[in-house]
Structures are given as structure tokens and as C-alpha cells.
Amino acid sequence: MDTKKESKSRPEWIDIVSRYNKADNLKSWWQVINSTGSYILMWVLMVWSLKISYWLTLALAIPAAGFLVRTFIIFHDCGHGSFFRSKRLNTIVGVITGLLVFTPYHRWHRDHHIHHQTVGNLDKRGIGDVATLTVEEYQSRSRWKRFLYRIYRNPFFLFGLAPLLLFVVLYRFPKKYMTVREHIYVQLTNLALVLMVFSMIIIIGWKAYLMIQLPVLFIATVHGVWLFYVQHQYRHVQWSDSARWDYKTMALDGSSFFRLPAALNWFTGNIGYHHIHHLSPLIPNYNLKKCNDENDLFREIKPITFWSAFESLILRLWDEKRGMLVSFREWRQALRSA
After folding, report:
1. Could you report the per-residue pLDDT of 161-176, keeping only the tens digit for each?
2. Where are the domains of the chain?
3. CA dihedral of 124, 125, 129, 133, whole degrees rounded to 10
4. Residues 6+ apart with CB under 8 A from 145
5. What is the pTM of this model?
6. Phi, psi angle pair for 257, to nearest 5°
């Protein structure tokens, strides 16, 4: 096969991202140590802090949650097969970190794979994404269904109740479309979680366990859901039907570049460079920033900042005519002016 001819026939962006697809096992193991290792150390400190002041425990819960979010990024990369060179090692570390973040490895990554293949596709919503109605769909709903949608899209539900409900309860159940083997994997994960929690209760007691685990898990899951939300729910995100759906366009314009302060970027494992991650899920998190900084392909991508991201909280509906997400208020104003 003529490799020169093949390279000319494929898009240039594939050659660009391919240079960053290589996992570095030393970097990966160091990330395991400074993420999961630090999380375990924070647990030890929080157990000790209970003897001094629970306010100190709650203060320590904040960095502990940060390390847990970073651990989730490892779990996430393992599922893409990008964290280690070995497929088996990715699976082993992915399953173990999945227990720490209360997430079944095989179930979550099945849904997440579908999410990558359907992001921004209006005809294939519903798996691995935040439910979003178009203006026309919302207008056609009954009052009761509109009310339920409003409850679902309310920030107090999405970032108050939903995160813990999702990670602690909903992830314990397999989905109907899953295979028998995947059902078994979910139940094995549940069994391992029960053993892990029971062991911790034996060691430190149920009260101490809940006083530590609940605030850490709450802070981590709220911030994790917020990160995922901002990645695909922002004013000028691009969505289209299947006929016009294009992989590169939806990766770069259907996923955000969420520019965060350096410390938050570290704790979130560079996941703010989500447009690049969707362009090539095989890029390990520690190569995402480098890929962004070294290539002109990404120069014109307008970032969402820490503060501008909060506009996403009011956006509820996809307006197909204007090609953007709008708030309920903007929808009503458009109705009155029509």
C-alpha cells in the first residue's frame, strides 16, 4: 500500500491528532499515584480530623473531592483505551478506579461510547447526554410534561439532587439494552462496592464513614456533572440532524473548550479541552493541552471561561431556527414577537 497516497487522501486533522494518541506509561502511573494515592491520603487525614473538628473534616473534603474528580478522569481515559498502552491494564485500572468513583466500568463506557458517536445529533439523543428538547418539541408537550421537563432542567435538581442520585442509586442498575455479560458486570461492581463500604464501616464505623464519604462524593459528583454539562450545553453549541451530522464539526463545535484556571485544569485532568477529546478520544488527558497549544487547527476555537460558563444554567431549549440554545424567557419573548 502506498502510505504517501493514503496520507494525502485522509484529512489533515487526523494526522495532527494522531501524534498525541500515544500513552506514556510513566506519566500514567504517576497520575495514578498523585490522584488516587492523594485521595486515599486525604481519607486518612479526614478520619484523623474527626477527632479534632468536623469543620476541619469538611474543609479537607474539598481537596479530597478534587482528587476524586481527577481519579474519575483516569477511569474515563481507561475506558477509551488511552491511558495505558495495554488494553488489559486499562481495564484493570478502570475497574478499580470505577469503584472509587461509584461507577460501573463496563456500563458507563458503553453509554459513553454511544455519546461520542452521537454528540450533537438531534436524531440520536437519549444515551449518555443531558436530555434537551427543541423549541418545537417543548411546545408540543402537554402542560404536565412541560412541568416535568422544567423540573429536570432546573439547576437545583441537575446540580443538587441528580448527581448523588445518579452515582449512588441509578448506576446500581443495568439497562435493558445491555447484554447478559454487561448485566453481570454491573452486579459484580455492586458486590465489590458493598464489600468496600462494609470493610470501611468495620474499620472506622458507619457514622464516620458517612460523615466523610457523603460530603466528598457530593462535592465531586456535583462538579463532575457541571463539567459534563458545560461541555455540551452552551449558547452556540452546534447540533444537527443525521443528514448534516459531521464528526469533525461536532467535535470542534459541538463540544466546548472550557478554559479553567491552572489548578482547576489540573484537578479536572484537562477535560476542559473537550473539543480535542471528542476529535480523538485516544489522546490521554495529559496530552490534550499540548495538542491544543501546538496546532493552528484549534486557534480559532472560542473558549468558555470559568465565569461565562454560568450562562449555561439558564439555557434550556434548542432553537433550530436560530441554531442555538435559548432560555425559557427567550423562548417566550420569541413567541410574543412572532
Report:
1. 999 999 999 999 998 8
2. 3-132+160-238+247-305
3. 150
4. none
5. 0.93
6. -100, 100
